[in-house]
Amino acid sequence: MIILSVLLVLVILLIGGMLLRNMQTSKITPMRQVDVYAEQMRSLERDLAKGVLADDEFGSMRAEVGRRMISAARLGPDTAATVSNGGFRTLIAVSVAACILGAVTYGQIGSPGAPDTPIAARYTQSDALRAARLSQLDAESQAPTLKIPQDPTYLQLVIKLRAALEARPNDIQGFEFLAKSESRLGNYAHAHAAQGQVLKLKGKAASPDDWYTYAELLMMAADTYISQEAENALRQTLQRDPSHSLALFRIGIYFDQIGRPDRTFGIWRKLLEAGPESAPYMPLIRRTITDLAMIAGVDYEPPEIKGPTSDDIQNAAEMSDEDRRTMISGMVTGLADRLANEGGPASDWAQLIVAYGVLGETDTAQEILNEALQLFGGEPKDLGMLQQAGVSAGLSQ
Fold first, then answer.
1. Which residue, 380, 390, 322, 320, is CA-closest to 355?
2. Is 158 in contact with 178 (CB distance < 8 Å)?
3. Are residues 166 and 255 in the same domain?
4. Is the per-residue pLDDT at 341 higher than 80?
5. Same domain as 105, residue 143
6. 3-state SS string for the chain
7. Residue 183: which domain range?
8. Domain co-membership, 16 together with 142
9. pLDDT of residue 98
10. Structural contact between residues 217 and 183, judged by C-beta atoms closer than 8 angstroms
11. Does the predicted TM-score (pTM) go above 0.85?
12. Whether pLDDT at 24 is above 50
């Protein structure tokens, strides 16, 4: 605590010295404010040209900026504002009082003699959290009961399949079909039991996807909780295919749950940079990767979201409806978010309009087109590009 107090006093003295020097040399020239207001005026004119501001809004804002510009110019270039001695003394007094109050408070409710928590201790805590993970049976017992409407005819077929497989315990394809059927009914416990039989029958020939399907069914039965058995299934998947993206995503969640967000960041960073943007896990990674980087102590700037190219859209037109919608939806979502938050050139808006047209979401495409036409109303070249995008999307201009 003594060392902390000394450091705080030194910081105050350093700041005080800098302010004292600035009292003698620092001058704020009012004419600099005129330059700032002039730039604001030019910015308003650009916004008016783009259609961002209406005429009445531009008029009122321009008048206010002009009034402030005239007031700043009247002060003259030689008038200077300096830091007063009274303000300096007040700053020193408040800083000293804050240091004293902080030291007293820390001495009462803090732990002055407590050492820093070393990284080894945090690893030990993580190992303890891992050891305390629930078994699959315990996790399922705590999961809420699902109520999924079931087709009586389909249910009877599944019941018959169960009975048939009791007489054919070595039928791999039968158990694979049973796992899918039970999952469709929401019977995830029965589903992962059937998939477990598939793994047993295949043995070493079981594929990474076979193991990941088992892990996914285990997690679904436990309301997405990653039990000890689910963790093992994910590791078995990655042993057979270290680049299995879905297994990597899930194991990243697992590491975060056991107090190792640094490992989650390392895994998810590779997934984010490898893409594709349409991957189902990408929105969650983008929402959390910056926070994970901060916790891991890494200065990280996520890669920019890229929208679908003309080649992407052309290829999508040759796919089945379901595959096309899955591929484009992820890319369109990322592009739409970027344009809404950061803006972008007319070419990006045109891509978004065409992409929504391919998806059949014509109402959304029309809304985007109308917004883009207002935004780029003063640029004939951009208007032509946007109107052509509307035609390609099947929209009425």
1. 390
2. yes
3. yes
4. no
5. no
6. CHHHHHHHHHHHHHHHHHHHHHHHHCCECCHHHHHHHHHHHHHHHHHHHHCCCCHHHHHHHHHHHHHHHHHHHHCCCCCCECCCHHHHHHHHHHHHHHHHHHHHHHHHHCCCCCCCCCHHHHHHHHHHHHHCCCCHHHHHHHCCCCCCCCCHHHHHHHHHHHHHHHHCCCCHHHHHHHHHHHHHHCCHHHHHHHHHHHHHHHHHHCCHHHHHHHHHHHHHHCCCCCCHHHHHHHHHHHHHCCCCHHHHHHHHHHHHHCCCHHHHHHHHHHHHHHCCCCCCCHHHHHHHHHHHHHHHCCCCCCCCCCCCCHHHHHHHHCCCHHHHHHHHHHHHHHHHHHHHHHCCCHHHHHHHHHHHHHHCCHHHHHHHHHHHHHHCCCCHHHHHHHHHHHHHCCCCC
7. 136-296
8. no
9. 58
10. yes
11. no
12. no
Residue 9 lies in a domain: yes
Residue that the structure tokens 């890229």 belong to: 306
Cβ–Cβ < 8 Å for 189, 167: no
- Split at pLDDT 50, 70, 90, the class of 25 is very low
- Using the structure block, give the residue that is written with the tokens 């408040």: 94
5 C-beta neighbours (distance < 10 Å), count:
14
The token pair that represents 254 in the structure block? 């697992």
Do 76 and 218 reside in the same domain of the chain? no
Same domain, 181 and 67: no
Average pLDDT over residues 286-305: 87
Does 302 reside within a domain? no
Residue type (1 letter), 244? H
Q: Are residues 77 and 14 in the same domain?
A: yes
Q: Is residue 213 part of a domain?
A: yes
- Asked if residue 50 belongs to a domain, the reply is yes
Q: State the residue for tokens 């014509």.
A: 362
For 183-238, the pLDDT digits (tens) are 888 888 999 999 999 999 999 999 999 999 999 999 989 988 999 999 999 999 99
34-38, 56-60, 242-246, 360-364: least confidently modelled range: 34-38
Domain count, the chain: 3
> In a 10 Å sphere around its CB, with 0-12 CB exposed, 13-18 middle and 19+ buried, how is residue 56 labelled?
exposed
- Asked if residue 184 and residue 286 are part of one domain, the reply reads yes
